[in-house]
Design brief:
The protein is of the alpha+beta class and 427 residues long. Helix content is 46%, strand content 13%. The protein folds into two domains: 177 residues, D-Maltodextrin-Binding Protein, domain 2 (3-Layer(aba) Sandwich), CATH 3.40.190; 202 residues, D-Maltodextrin-Binding Protein, domain 2 (3-Layer(aba) Sandwich), CATH 3.40.190.10. 45% of the residues are buried.
Length: 427
């Protein structure tokens, strides 16, 4: 396993193996086969348990145990269990980690899984979970980004709510009108955030984060730099957003949920928290993102994967096939877990959130751009944050930060492609 094992570094592997040893499936006392399904989101747990229950109705010889493992423990435990061949039978996979797990033989090949109709899912999302032409995870859900706004603050100023005509210029103009330093209110929130801010601006401006064959990043491109400069200017030039230093003390969510911000970008995954927040539920709504040179939003989604080392192959694959079904996706929607990846099953999710204009999220698929991805994504995303925070703080220019990023990320991508070529030559 080479490089996969090195990820764990200083962790106490033996202790983590014990924690996850019960994670893999087993035989029950009554002769049924028990398989495990690992997830990390407590808000989605009821829907995942209902999916398991429905599956068990038609598969009485199989029991599915849904295991909730908090996000801050999930990957550490999953990596440890991979080392000890005790992975959960079925588990959630994130695009950020997918290529690492697939390339190291940790995931079962689901290309020929009965009932997995790839045409029912967004094509980019299917490709997201494809490695060397084989599919190793089933798209579970997807998320896009919307422009949330505070209706109370708009009404106080007599300003019309955001609509499909808005562009960057309109966003800045209205944000300036709604910024009220005396009351501590900002017109827009622009923290250093990839998915929910500057990636969207980059693609709206015609730039890119990675090129099509993942051989180079887009940070040398003037259109990419222009978009990032616009994101930085929202706090430094236009002063409609808190600074990066202020965001260290108060998060974007806290600003918005306390009525201290008129607008912000938020992903569809925030619906659960916003629905439960009394202030947001009473005073806020969501519209499509303003456009730049084009309309665009970043999108991604989770996948359902099966362990390559599962001891209960038939049971795990049967459950995976059910997870790929329209019925399982409709359960996710109807129970307001997420926007299901299966096309045409999102109406239940829209109905469950009818107090907000959430239909803009699935509609955004028409102009959505899949999240940039490569095997070293985790590393270069950390590099992006480390370098760009200096630009957000005003310590370096956007141009200099982007040049530094281009040099660092291109080196990572070159090394990545070299290693891939060497692996192919060994096969």
């Amino acid at each position: 396993m080479g490089k996969f094992g090195r990820i764990i570094l200083a962790l106490s592997l033996a202790a983590l193996m014990i924690l996850f040893a019960a994670g893999c499936g087993s035989e029950t006392g009554d002769g049924r086969t028990r398989i495990t399904y690992a997830i990390w989101d407590k808000n989605q747990q009821p829907a995942m348990e209902e999916i398991a229950r429905r599956f068990e109705e038609t598969h009485p010889d199989i029991e599915v145990e849904v295991q909730l493992i908090p996000w801050n423990q999930y990957w550490t435990k999953l990596e440890a269990s991979a080392m000890s061949d005790t992975m959960p039978d079925v588990f959630w996979m994130h695009s950020q980690s997918f290529l690492r797990y697939a390339s190291n033989g940790m995931l079962f090949d689901l290309t020929d899984l009965p009932g997995f109709d790839t045409s029912a899912y967004p094509e980019d999302l299917v490709q997201f979970y494809t490695y060397e032409g084989r599919r190793y995870a089933i798209p579970k859900d997807y998320d896009t980004i919307g422009l949330w706004y505070n209706k109370r603050l708009f009404d106080e100023k007599g300003i019309s709510y955001p609509d499909e005509t808005w562009d960057w210029q309109k966003l800045v103009m209205v944000a300036q009108e709604l910024t009220d330093p005396a009351r501590g209110i900002y017109g827009f929130l622009a923290p250093l955030d990839q998915q929910s801010l500057y990636y969207d601006f980059v693609y709206q401006n015609g730039g890119e984060i990675l090129n099509s064959n993942k051989s180079a990043c887009g940070y040398r491109d003037p259109t990419t730099q222009e978009a990032i400069k616009f994101a930085v200017d929202l706090s430094q030039k236009y002063q409609v957003s808190p600074t990066i230093q202020q965001f260290a003390d108060m998060s974007r969510e806290q600003y918005f949920q306390s009525g201290k911000a008129a607008m912000a970008f938020f992903g569809s995954w925030m619906l659960g928290d916003f629905s439960k927040n009394e202030y947001v539920a009473q005073n806020c709504d969501v519209a499509m993102l303003p456009k730049g040179k084009r309309r665009a939003t970043i999108y991604g989604g989770l996948g359902n994967a099966v362990s390559a080392k599962t001891k209960h192959k038939e049971a795990a694959l049967a459950f995976a096939a059910f997870l790929a079904s329209r019925e399982a996706n409709e359960i996710q929607a109807d129970m307001n877990a997420c926007i299901p990846a299966y096309r045409g099953t999102e109406q239940g999710w829209i109905d469950a959130n009818r107090n907000f204009n959430v239909k803009i999220y699935p509609e955004a698929l028409d102009y959505a751009v899949i999240f940039p991805n490569s095997e070293t994504r985790e590393k270069w995303m950390l590099t992006e944050t480390d370098v760009l925070k200096k630009a957000w703080a005003g310590d370096v220019s956007v141009e200099d930060a982007c040049q530094t990023l281009a040099d660092k990320i291109d080196a990572m991508l070159a090394k990545e492609q070299k290693e891939q070529k060497e692996q192919e030559e060994k096969k």
